[in-house]
Every structure is written in structure tokens, then in C-alpha cells.
């Protein structure tokens, strides 16, 4: 998906629905079996039906599958399933056997009915789930017996294991249809995971180890998350010793030294600018192509990311192997950008800004006002655009003010929320807008650009079960995209974190998705840590 699920404010449900609130006062780090971490994202919104933890990072939930760490694309291993699901030859029917004896945090027993209810709730239009379009290939889900579940798909879909990472909730918690953002699960989650939520305030959440966890009780017994939206404030609190870890922009993270460690984890997370097709300037193919050649991506990596990143020309990164087309790039060439604009009739005026048929080459780009990294990338983009005669007005706004203007202004976006297959990395970002706009996120293909040739190849990649055919389709997507781009993709990030040195033995990094708060980073597999 191309939207920004974790950067958008999560709705806070009335906190009276939560368990008892812990005593006030700043928590202290350093306890032998507890951690205090600070995050930039609002607390709450812990409902998988609304999309929480779709990439398998939720600590209070388990999916049928979970991810393995290491370099490159992660693999899949059983979670609530006892083995990887089996698929019929055409990959339209998938069957998964389930674990017995697993219980939810409310004491109820897990079985196939809970899996069925969770997926049906995601697909129910009444839930208004922004991830519903990501599961649109599911035609029906049914319990074969109490410990076996079967998914029947509308079409072949080799990437289906990526859809089995999302957490499972008790069937009773979704028995009454309604908007997922209004569910009690947002503030009082009920899962089978290694942790359970015991307290929630607007700026503080406490998770305690599930001592009866089917996978074994975690050694880290208590996790406290603090909501600290300002980057500099998190850095100050980290430096003061109050925190055991936090996420920070690269240049700020790199200022820390022992007894702190800086961790930079590779991701398929991208940043780029959507170019709304309905705008007379940003929607002009020549302007989009020229700006792709005008931006100095390497300078952004060096000066804004501190070297922690790679150029992005499409949503695809080289981690996708045979599905990655290394020739699908845009050379940094301002003279070429200027020629493209000249040839299209965009002529420079006395002030250097171009115009065509009385239309000044000027458009707006919005970015989230709380994100300093997006701010800096937006400033660099605007500066590069101005050097070829395109004027970009930057607007720092909250997400609720950005969303109504998606089709009228560009956005400094992030994407790559489900990067564990080429399909889930690119489909929603590059495919033509869905005919049912309520089925997905409004940030899906924020440019609203439609290219039937790209659609056809994306659909081949989505529906084929032949790895070679899929890879060829995705390479064709990238080659076609560079002829008529819909965005100006800028960088793939390394996510940077600061960690207080400790005696914990961690499991190592994993390829990270767009959601790069402290549910990822060194803490993505917190439940497996040992001393």
C-alpha cells in the first residue's frame, strides 16, 4: 500500500474501556526484565480488523504465519498454524491446520471460528477497514473443522502467505458489525500473542508478558511505550537515560555514542512525491518525467539520510531479486529535464519559472508537519524542481488536513507497508484506482494515474503461480513505469534507531516495512530475547 498507516493519527477510543491505568509519573529504564521505548506514533488503534499489525509486528496478537529474520526477503514460518498452508495447484484454495490448546488473553480458547470471524470482519464493508482491498482476493473463508481453516480465493494468488500475518481476534469481539475504528479492540485488545496490554493513557501504554503464551513466556516481562511525537524531545529523553530505545531520523541518531548504539535496519520503505493526475502541472507527463530526472537522489541520501538509504525510482528495491529491473532508473540530469520541458512547451519566464498556455509551472506538495525527515526531503525536492523551472509550494499539515486534498496536491508519501512479496509492495501504489474507492486506503495510488499496460502486468504478477512469469511481469512494470511515471520516488530508507547497551541477546534485523516505530527495529522479535 502507498498510504502511511502508522504516521496517520490513530483514533483513541474512550480510555475507560481499558484496564486499570497505571500510576502517573515518568517510567524509569534499566530494570532487569523491562524496557521503556519512545515512539512517534499515537497509542491505541490496536485492532487488526482496522489494519493494525498487518505485517505481523503486533505483540498482543499472532497471525497464522510469522516472519523469519535475516538478510533479503524474510521467509514464513507457522504461527497459529501448525505448518505452512497447502495450496491446490492453481493457488485458489489454501488450507491451514491450526494449533490446539491456544488461548486468548481473556481466557477463551482459540479455534478456526476465530480465524473465520477475523477475516470476514476485515472484508465486511460495515467495518470500513482501510486494508480491505489488500484482502480482496479472498472470496470466502470457512472452518473445515475446529482446527482447520480453508480460504477460497477469487483468483490464483501465489503471494497469499503475506495475508496470513495479520493478528487473529476472538470471534465474539467482532460478532456485531460496525466500523473497525470504533471497536473496543482499539484500546482493549484481545489476542493470543506474547504480550497483553495492561494500561493505556494518551502518552503511555504498558504491555506485560503473557506467562501462558503458547510459544513460551517472554524473558522481557514488561514493555512500556511512550508517545513522544517530537524527534528532538525523544532524542533528549534518550540522552538523559530515561529510555532504553527509540526511533530517530538518521542524522539525529548518528549523534549518539556509547553507552548508546545506533542501529540502521534495511527496509523496502520508500519516500516519494505523488503527482496528482488532475492537476494541470503535476499531471502533465512531461513535468512528471522531467522531475524524475531533476531530483538529486544521492544528495538526499548523503545530506538528509546520512548515508542510510538507497535511491528509489519505483517502489521496487533490489531485494526482490529476479522481480527487480536494475535498468529501470532515471539518470540525474538537469539538462535532460530542461529539454523535456522545453519540448513539451513549458518555457521559462523572466523569473525562471516556466509556463505553458498561460499556466504557470507551479503546484503544491503537502507533508506531515510532525515528520522532520519528510520536511527535509520535501525541501530538497522543491529546491531541485525550482532549478529546472518548476515552482513547488510546500505545505506542512496534519494528515486529517492532507487527506481531503489528495487529488489536488502532491504529497510527500511513504510506502511499502507489506513488502514481503513484489505484489504487496507495488500493486496498490501503481495499479489504476479501484472502482470501489471505499474498498481501500485513499492513499492507494495517490496520483490517481491510470496506465492499462502497467495494470495488465501487475495482474499477471498477481495471478500467476509461475515464479518466472511473475518476475518477468514485474520487470515489465518497472520498464513501462519509467516511460510514464506517476510519482517521483526519491529514496528507500534504512530505519535508524538508538538503543541503550544492555546484556540482552537479540535476534538480529529483518527487512522492515514502512511502519518503522519501535514495534520494529531491534525490538521486532522482543519475545525471543534472552540473556
From TrEMBL:
Short name of one Pfam family: SBP_bac_5
Domain (Solute-binding protein family): residue spans on this chain: 76-429
Coiled coil: none
Gene3D superfamilies: Dipeptide-binding Protein, Domain 1, Dipeptide-binding Protein, Domain 3, Periplasmic binding protein-like II
Entry annotated with the keyword Glycoprotein: no
Record keywords, A-Z: Signal, Transport
Residues annotated as signal peptide: 1-22
Domain of life: Bacteria
Family named by the database record: Belongs to the bacterial solute-binding protein 5 family.
Record-linked PANTHER family: OLIGOPEPTIDE-BINDING PROTEIN APPA, PERIPLASMIC BINDING COMPONENT OF ABC TRANSPORTER
Protein name, as recorded: ABC transporter substrate-binding protein
